[in-house]
Amino acid sequence: MAPGDELDALPPWWRGLGRALRLCRRAGPRLMWVAGLTTLAAALPDVLFAVGVAALGRAVAGHRGSELAAAAGLLAVLAAAGWLLGTVASRLGERLSERAAVRIEAHLAGLEASVPTVEHHERPEILARMARLRDWAGGLSELPARLFDLGGGLLRLGVTLALLMSVRPVFGLLGLFAVPMALLPLWRSAVGFAAEERVEHLQRRARRLFDLGTDAGTGKEIRVSGAQERLGALWAEAWHRRNRVLARVGWCNIGWSLVAFGLFGAAFAACLVVEASTGSTGSGPARAGGVLLVLAAGGRLSGYLARTVDQFNGFRTIWVDQSRRLVWLEGWAAAGRRRWDAPVPDALTAGIVFEDVSFRYPGTDRPVLEGVSLRLPAGAVVAVVGENGAGKSTLVKLLCRLYEPSGGRILVDGVPLDRMPADGWRSRLTGAFQDFFPFEFTAARSVGLGDLPRIDDRDAVAAAVVRAGADSVLAGLPDGPETRLGTAWEGGVELSHGQWQRIALARGFMRGAPLLRILDEPTSALDAETEHVLFARYAAEARREGAAGGVTVLVSHRFSTVRAADLIVVLDGAQVVEQGSHRELMAAGGRYAELYGVQAAAYR
Ligand SMILES: Nc1ncnc2c1ncn2[C@@H]1O[C@H](COP(=O)(O)OP(=O)(O)OP(=O)(O)O)[C@@H](O)[C@H]1O
Fold first, then answer.
1. 335, 436, 410, 395: which is closest to 569 by C-alpha?
2. Lower CB density within 10 Å: C or N end of the chain?
3. Residue 134: strand, helix, or coil
4. β pairing state of 567-572 and 415-416
5. How far is the CA of 392 from the centre of ligand 1 (A)?
6. For 54-109, how does the pLDDT look when each residue is reduced to its tens digit (9 = 90+)?
7. Burial of 32 by CB count in 10 Å (0-12 exposed, 13-18 middle, 19+ buried)?
8. DSSP states of 342-372 as a string?
9. Any residues with CB less than 8 A from the CB of 589 and at least 6 apart, and which?
10. Is the CB of 572 under 6 A from ligand 1?
11. Domains and CATH numbers, the chain
12. Model pTM?
């Protein structure tokens, strides 16, 4: 399944287990073996404690001093060995989990980042899967340790049952009475899981509302609109609705547990009474030893069983739920890359062509672009205009491959864009966007980020700053380019929106000779005059860079800026309604001429 397709079922459980264990093993193959063997060895002293107790009982009842000392010594050795092996095993398990966590988290982050488009950030069903995987990434790293614990638990159970049957074979049936206790948590946890999935959207909503109410970015508007109380009420309601559903499941769990534990308790009591009154192992000290063995082993049986079931449950949760999600994400990220069989060209000769392209946002039915056919000639400066919501930024996003078209294709020098590696294509793009991100690094690095390999190249940064007209911003900073931006940092300086925008613009000028330069309303916070001057500079620069045939796409609402473009594309109602040069479009007297006239009149 490729990104963009329907969300498919999770892969089978056995693939998930093997994959997750292999990933953890890479974090420390030898450590994994040592941790496994130590955990199994740590299970034995504890279970043999019942044998020591029985020996002690026999010695006390028979008044045998030497046997008493030997039994006491055995118990002391078992206690010390149990503690020592248990401590070492748990430390080794933790160490393995810590190492595996680093590897798994890096793997998950790499997988998410390698998904070529951003649509997964907007599809709730994918977000839910990924959120769960991310939240429980630590759990995956515990998978081997939990598997070893489970092995130790089963070993304890087996030896305990063998000890009980050594007293009377029929006492092995005690294990059967414990079965409901073993199965109950499995059943109830599946019920709990289903309930959690049902209310996951409420949890996500509550978290989002909390972020909205507490985030610095939203603080101003939330206060002005007076929405705090409403947000708080919605947040509380989301949590209450979620908690009510989960609490109901929790109470049912307790009820069923009482029934299962009651059944086992009755059977255990019956075993003790039978052994004490009839004494299968003889009379006197032997009977005392037998009763104590049943008491110690049987008493621990329920504890061991509950623990093993718990271990199995925890193991199963990670195994069945998490490891399958991991395999799904690996497959999903890889599917998007599979058809990349064409290289990204070094230079454009013909240009970029939209061939009957249509697009709908994930989870929506409304076409945002429909039947768009366009040619963006190599080396041209192309302006895209249209009213709010006309689809200008969407067209730009398709060019950046943040989404794949729902229909039609985009060709780069005649080759379908979706056959080229997305990261390779993006490495030849540069851009500045209206919804830029204010990276709170030093000013120089915030600009240098536009071309990662040259992030610390001071000359390249200085040149980009000048080209974007951001030199006045840097000149006003206390430490110039080395000033830390953002008040969240000690000594950091906050910039105005327009200043941040200029930094973002400079970032967009870091890469030289791009195949595509995107300017999506990058100067919306600047005045019309400044925008005009800057755009004239970009256009001149783009024409100078003509050797690579790079296309510059400018989205702007200001027609005074747009008129200098080689080609102007007018979008309306999800379609291209006009295209041509300023002079051609004015002569045609259509939509462009109308909008231009309105804006010119407003300026006059
Ligand atoms: N992530 C999204 N999910 C769903 N719909 C979206 C998304 N982003 C944009 N849209 C819708 O797509 C349509 C086109 O949006 P787009 O941002 O491309 O318009 P635009 O022409 O750039 O507008 P503006 O001039 O206001 O920036 C709008 O109706 C918008 O509601």
1. 395
2. C
3. helix
4. unpaired
5. 8
6. 899 888 887 787 888 999 999 999 999 999 999 999 999 999 999 999 998 888 88
7. buried
8. SPPPSS-SSEEEEEEEEEE-TT--SEEEEEE
9. none
10. no
11. 13-335 (1.20.1560.10), 344-428+515-604 (3.40.50.300), 433-510 (no CATH)
12. 0.65
Q: Whose CA is nearest to atom 6 of ligand 1?
A: 361
Which residues of the chain are under the pLDDT cut of 70?
1-8, 120-122, 279-283, 336-338, 524-525, 544-548, 602-604
Ligand 1 mean position to 600 CA, how many Å? 26
- 29-47 and 49-61 helices, crossing angle to 10°: 20
* Residue 238, ligand 1, Cβ within 6 A: no
550: tokens are 């790079």
Distance CA 500, CA 524 (A): 12
Length of the chain equals: 604
397 Cα nearest atom in ligand 1: 18
- Residue nearest (by alpha carbon) to ligand 1 atom 30: 389
Burial 358-390 (b: 16+ CB within 10 A, else e): bbbbbeeeebbbbebebbbbbbbbbbbbbeeeb
* ipTM associated with this complex: 0.97
First to last CA, the chain: 56
d(CA 351, CA 401): 16
Closest Cα to atom 28, ligand 1: which residue? Answer: 389
